Amino acid sequence: MPVTEPLVLGIETSCDETGVGIVRGRTLLANVIASSMDEHAVFGGVVPEIAARAHVEALQSTIEQALHDADVTVEDLDAIAVTAGPGLAGALMVGVGAAKALAVAANKPLYGVNHLVGHVGADVLRADGTDIELPTVALLVSGGHTSLLVVRDLVDDVQMLGETIDDAAGEAFDKVARLLGLPYPGGPHIDRVAADGDPRAIAFPRGLTLPKDMAKHRYDFSFSGLKTSVARFVETAQAAGHDVDVADVAASFREAVADVLVRKAVAACQAYDVPRLLLGGGVAANARVRELAEERCAAAGIELRVPPLSLCTDNGAMIAALGAHLVARGIAPSALDFPVDSTLPVSTVQV
Amino acid sequence: MGQSGMGDRMTTILAIDTSAGTSVAIVRDGEVLSEHSIDEIRRHAEVVGDLIVRCLSDAGITAADITDVVAGRGPGPFTGLRVGIAAAIAFAVGRTIPLHGVVSHDAVAWGRAEPCTVVTDARRREIAVSSYAAGGVAHRVAGPTLTTNDELATVADLADYPECRADTISAAALALRAEAGLRLGIDFSDHRAIYLRAPDAVPSAGPKKVLS
Q1: pLDDT at position B160, please?
Q2: Which of A19, A265, B16, B196 matches a 20 to 30 Å C-alpha distance to A161?
């Protein structure tokens, strides 16, 4: 008999956040996150080796803090879940090595799960106690991912509609922030200065939206050309001796990103006849992305879900939630010898 | 009680080392109850769980019987090295038992009758070396440090002893070294990885120009 409200500890180390979360069924009990973001700032982006080192340093305290916050012991757990991919291989290995040893030490079943599906699983943890509604289209946008999925079942029916063919959206924010002399990570700073700018001041390109792109890349994204376009604009202005209006550039760039993201997500909802859109990943914190998603979803009759930010950015609670969902559905645990997979496809929910 | 809190406490040590291949062992009172190793250098995260299970099974004990965990601190290739340390941390947290860190080179010197300089590959045409003034107790007098094969002969302390090149590390030897050391009150509380190199990354020099 499957446990209906399983107590699960989840470990997430796919990028620069060491996340350990504990859930009981659909109830969040703990969500502890240690980030190495500050250590990456001088490099302008996540350095995999620095991230992996930080994971090992943070492991013990994050696991202990999560157990403390949830007021449970390892013996109480019904299962352990861990991100098996996609993500940075060396970073993933820290979490997977730890999760395996923890599972053996506590004699608990282990579930190796998909990071991106975990982002969708975060919506299982609704504070109001309602159930996640499926099918849903999910737009997952962070410094590492820009993915559009349609999720019909969290266990066995997740389909990738499209993803970025070059930079992730969050990466584009970081790079453009650097062009404009703003700190890392770029998202919050672009948001801040864009508030005073005109989003229509400069017509930056919307990647992969032209008719010629739509056949092959209808739901894919591209932000590399946009970043280069911003760089050209800034350099051209500087070469001509003009002051660059940072607020206008930031606002126009942000508008281009938000427009493409939301346009393609809404198009997917309509094409697949799915009246729900879930926003996940750190870029869900971006004010304009949220605002535009709210506007266009409301106009199209699509219900928009945005989990709390602490469950949108990478975290262990969403991994625990997905693990708990698998346990409750009576799915067998993963074999103990699974490898990490830095390019794990979303169709593989559990390894 | 001894200085380390060990005293005469009978320990059953689980040792995990991934500084070369993946090696796991269980040791009690000077006796190796079980040891399993896989020499492949890219499968640490895959195999570490099963190796622990097999060691427990062969030793005829359960995880609850383990009293201490020992992590091999390296030096060794970083990506693999971390897997064993992460596993050791998690096992110790999972059972609420002490975690000790031991320099992986100590396992090579351990049990050798003669003084030696342990040499392991550090990639990029460099080697990691540690010198031990006496065999048996793994009394490390220098290292671990990075050098090259050409320079090894010129480094004081390191060049004084016969070279002992190793491409595998035994978790059983690591556990025996820890057990003996703990009884002597040696402090093994530092279990951080010994990297010997800073991460490869250069601070951003500002945005790249796109117009020539």
Answers
A1: 79
A2: A19
Q: What's the order of all strands across the beta sheet hosting A79-85? A: A27-35, A17-24, A7-12, A79-85, A110-114
Compare CB distances from A59 to B16, B50, B90 and report the shortest one's residue.
B90
- Residue A75 in 3-state DSSP? helix
Tell me the C-alpha to C-alpha distance, in Å, between residue A188 and each of A32, A41, A194, B27, B160. Answer: 22, 14, 10, 52, 57
pLDDT band for B135, please (50, 70, 90 cuts).
low
* Cα dihedral across residues A157, A161, A166, A169: positive or negative: negative
Residue numbers in B near A47 (CB within 8 A): 199, 201
Q: CA A44 from chain center: how many Å?
A: 19
Q: Are A347 and A153 in contact (CB under 8 A)?
A: no
Q: What's the pLDDT score for residue B157? A: 72
Q: Which of A50, A99, A235 sits opposite B90 (nearest CB)?
A: A99
Residues 6+ apart with CB under 8 A from A75: A106
Question: What's the pLDDT at B4?
Answer: 45
| Residue B149 DSSP code | H
Cα four-point dihedral sign A335, A336, A337, A338: positive
Average pLDDT of the residues in A145-168: 96
The partner residues of A27 in beta bridges, in order of sequence, read A24
Cα–Cα distance between A324 and A239 in angstroms, integer? 57
Residue A55 at interface with chain B, using a CB cutoff of 8 Å: yes
Contact A90 B94 (CB under 8 A): no
Rounded to an integer, what distance in angstroms lies between the CA atom of residue A265 and that of residue A128? 26
Q: Which of B40, B79, B202 to mutate to test the interface with A (most CBs of A within 10 A)?
A: B79
3-state secondary structure of A339: coil
A24: tokens are 């009981």
pLDDT at B101: 98
Q: Which residues of A are less than 8 Å from B44 in CB distance?
A: 93, 97
With a cut of 80, say whether residue B206 has pLDDT above it: no
- Which residue in B81, B85, B67, B76 sits closest to B26, CA to CA? B67
pLDDT of residue B2: 34
Confidence of residue B1 (pLDDT cuts 50, 70, 90): very low
In the DSSP assignment, the letter for residue A80 is: E
- Residue A89 to residue B79, Cβ atoms within 8 A: yes
Q: Which residues lie below 8 Å from residue A245, measured CB to CB, with a gap of 6+?
A: A197, A201
The fold for domain B12-111+168-183 equals Nucleotidyltransferase; domain 5 (3.30.420)
